[in-house]
Amino acid sequence: MNVIEVHQGRLESPFYPRLKALDRLDSWHTWKGYTTPDALFDAELEYFAIRNSTGVFDLTPMTKYRITGKDSLAYVDRLVTRDMQKVTAGRVAYAVWCNDQGQVIDDGTIFHLREGEYRLCSQERHLPWLMAAAIGFDVTIREETADIAALAVQGPTSFSIMKNLGLHGIENLKPFGLMHFDFQGTELMVSRTGFTGDLGYELWLSPGKALALWDALFEAGRHYDIRAMGTHALEQARIEAGYLAAYQEFLPADETVRTGRSRSPFELGLDWLVDFRKPNFNGRRALAAEKLSGSKWRLVKLDIEGNKPAHHSYIYAKPRKNKKEIGFITSASWSPVCKQNIAIGSVRMPHGATGETVWVEVYYQREMHWSRVMAKATVVDKAFWFPARRSATPPAPY
Amino acid sequence: MTEQYDAIVIGAGHNGLVCAALLGKAGRKVLVLEANEQVGGAAVTRRFADDYSVPACAHLLYQLQPQVKKDLGLNIALASDDMETVALSTDGQHVRYSGDRVQGVSDADAASYREFHRRMGRFANLLQTYLNKPPPRLGTKDRKDLVTLARLGLDLRMLGRKEMREFLRLIGMNIHDEVTERFESKLLKGALSLDAVVGTHLGPRSPNTIMTYLYRLAGNAGRLAAPAGGMGAVSEALAQAARSHGVTIRTGMPVQRVIVDNGRVTGVETQNGENFASFTVISNADPKTTILNLVGARHVETGFARRISNIRMQGNAAKLHLALDGLPVVQGLEKKDFGARLLIAPDEHYVERAFNPAKYGETSPEPVLEISIPSFRDSTLAPTGKHVLSAIVQYAPYRLKKGWDKAAREAFKETTLRKITEFMPDIDGRITAVELLTPVDIEQEFHMGGGHWHHGEFTLDQFMFVRPVSGAAQYAMPLDGLFLCGAGTHPGGGVSGAAGRNAARAILGREKSA
């Protein structure tokens, strides 16, 4: 009899031995089947590495699909709401894709690796939808999550580290660009992308060379205070950058049961990603109708008074009398780098215009007892953290 | 320059012709493009051997909607109205039924049949009202839809508490349970089981086969008719009506694709490269062929393309045509009886057993048959004294496990003839020509995907609000300018004209409200 052993329990990323060696906290969780550290030695310090030196995050568990074939451009163009004709080979596009009702299934990045060859990277798994979207197209969709090891290298010194790693020409790489390099005989793809809102790169290569890359990277970053980090630090940086996270700012539309619990791109502040000049894309008809009749929700970034993070708070139009609940906080944090109490939330239209004052009901606990404050908050439109170095090309060598 | 039409109809099937005629009657400039040389789609009479002609696919008329006849002023000469059905028995003890009368069964069965027929007739009438309207959208604020929904609820309630419960109990049920509860005559049970499953990929124990039975009754009050000149005469009459309303019909013009420009339909291109322009294109082809082949899935959205590609539509009925040099002998039948519809379905289990192998991609070793001898009523179909026999033979799955090669066809022909011989012992010596159309042949000849004459399996999950798929049940497809008018839309197949009429009314209604 042929016995096939099926791996049970958490998967280990190819970088696991290095992460494990650095781990002092033994605090891990599952991320899409992979064991992933919350933090390795101190979440705060790991976060400060992103902002002041360089933090390295293992993003191998990110869901990755390879899209190839004669119709690959037409395919991705119909899949997502933005115009993919403009995304030339060597460029990366942030994109959302919707169902026929114009509700967001997920957001992610699409890497135009080579002419007609794409990698779609997302938080959630989407093979059934991607296969359905392939009906009538000459494309091949391949799930390649486990075939690609990936690291995010983020922070002001990351450019110097990349140079030190011997990546010639990296100084010309613009934000949302990608380049191919040779790394010990294996192809290394480097994109100037990330989830931290800072200067940073993402490195992609086959798992066989993962540990060699890690070692070379940390050697190159020895004098640039390179540090490995876990998801807590990344989450902190993500909120400061004002990026969306699935299951926080929105629920994937195919996961919702109740009507009205999903969000359209407009309701997530992603109007700039919807291009009605395209004659057809998934959700176009519904989104055109929404454009006419108006959206129900609006995503807001809030600058909140005080220093107590507004986790899970309700948002009100008025603080006391006739207080009317208009929405809720989806992500919140005290931002050490901005020295601001920041949050992202979802409010009902027409509330939440830029500059508007709203009130956030913050609950906090002191020695078991709960207290509550009504904190004043202002709707802001820019990302909380957007340093000039993020878009400078070439970046300055810190 | 390509000529601009108000509407182009792809396919001159009976629904396409009804739709075109009604649009023409409303003053629209309409072009119909038909792939075959003959109009009528599956409702045609054609020659299959020297001097012998048959209704090549549909062979009985039972559902042509009175509303269609009235709107188009059709006057179709019938060779036979209210045809009798004879459920054949090898010993000559046949069961006959027509209307609410049944002969050859016990008094108890006869009384029970009267009651059964009355109730089914009542339900079929209710159904018929809604066959002739676009199904209302659910969860809408549209006034017309809400009124239709309210009417549907009211009409159900007006059946009376007991009858409404009975309707709701029966509608999703299988015919087997109902007939076994009601009747003792095996022949009657077998015949009614066959009536419920003709033309479907369903056995009498499959769910909602009572609904398919009701659907057959909903039109001519359950009366079976045969037009003079065969089914082709109906199509000719419809084409005539269309032409009289200024519709241009061009045959031998297979459409290659529907032209989509900047997110809307702008015309069609034929296989010979000719372009015809129109901002309204109505397809009489089945939904899968229309969306996936003629339009292309890339021009619609993913969820819709997925639903369309998941429509179940694999035919399971073959068509057998025999040229005979004289009427066969059937024990217990007189000459006049050959004008009746003859069934080979000796008992209710027989029908289900015939279906069993079809589930696994095999043909029935003991098939069921619905036989008609059209030449008996209509002398134009065969030389004097000679006859043609037309039979629907089940089950012959579209996707045969071994494939429909020559050997498989011969084997099934053999099986079917053997079965007929059991009831008509001298038939072998009378046959001068044989033609067997498998679902694959039906697909090719009549351009219906899967060779399924309903253009989509007739089940509750593909019925009314969700036919052809949810969100597209009102004939307009989610692509500007594209409509469907064929059997794949509400209410379904059979020569009824309801889909074509509903589609035309929906299109005209939209123009009015726009």
Would you give an account of this structure?
The complex is a heterodimer of chains A (398) and B (514). With 398 residues, chain A is of the alpha+beta class. Among the domains of chain A are: 16-60 and 148-229, Gyrase A, domain 2 (2-Layer Sandwich); 297-381, Beta Barrel (Elongation Factor Tu (Ef-tu), domain 3). Helices cover 18% and strands 33% of the residues of chain A. Chain A has helices at 16-22, 43-52, 72-79, 127-133, 158-164, 210-220, 231-241, 284-293, and strands at residues 27-31, 34-39, 54-58, 63-68, 92-98, 104-114, 117-122, 140-143, 149-154, 178-183, 186-191, 200-205, 226-228, 297-304, 314-316, 325-335, 340-348, 357-366, 369-380. Chain A has a 6-stranded mixed sheet with strand order 10-11-12-9-3-13. A 6-stranded antiparallel barrel of chain A has the order 14-17-16-15-18-19. Chain A has a 5-stranded antiparallel sheet with strand order 5-6-7-4-8, covered by helices on one side. In chain A, a hairpin with a 4-residue loop joins β16 and β17 (340-348). In chain A, α2 crosses α7. By secondary structure, chain B is an alpha/beta fold. Chain B has 3 domains: 4-43 and 231-312 and 450-513, FAD/NAD(P)-binding domain; 99-217, no CATH class; 314-446, Guanine Nucleotide Dissociation Inhibitor, domain 2. Helices cover 37% and strands 18% of the residues of chain B. Chain B has helices at residues 14-25, 66-72, 107-131, 143-158, 161-170, 175-182, 186-197, 209-217, 232-244, 287-295, 302-309, 348-359, 374-377, 406-423, 427-430, 439-446, 498-513; strands at residues 4-5, 7-10, 30-33, 45-49, 52-55, 78-80, 85-87, 95-98, 101-103, 226-227, 248-250, 255-261, 264-270, 275-278, 281-283, 317-324, 341-344, 368-372, 387-394, 431-437, 482-484. An 8-stranded mixed sheet of chain B has the order 9-8-7-17-18-19-16-20, with helices on both faces. In chain B, strands 11-3-2-15-21 form a 5-stranded parallel sheet, with helices on one face. In chain B, a hairpin with a 2-residue loop joins β8 (95-98) and β9. In chain B, α3 crosses α8 (209-217), α6 (175-182) packs antiparallel against α7 (186-197) and α7 packs across α8 (209-217). Chain B is globular, with a radius of gyration of 22 Å. The chains are: A alpha+beta (398), B alpha/beta (514). The interface between A and B is medium-sized, with 20 and 20 residues.
